[in-house]
Amino acid sequence: MKILFIRFSSIGDIVLTTSALRSLIKEIPNAKIHYLTLEEYAPLLEGNSSIDRLHVLERSTSVYKLILVGNYLNNCNFDMVVDMHDSLRSKIVRNRIKSGSHFFLKKPRWKRFKLFEFHQNDFKNDFSQLKLFHSVIKDVLSQKYHSSTSLFVSENEKEEAKLLLSENGTKDKKYLVCIPGAGWRNKTW
Question: Which domain holds residue 122?
Answer without folding.
Answer: 2-187
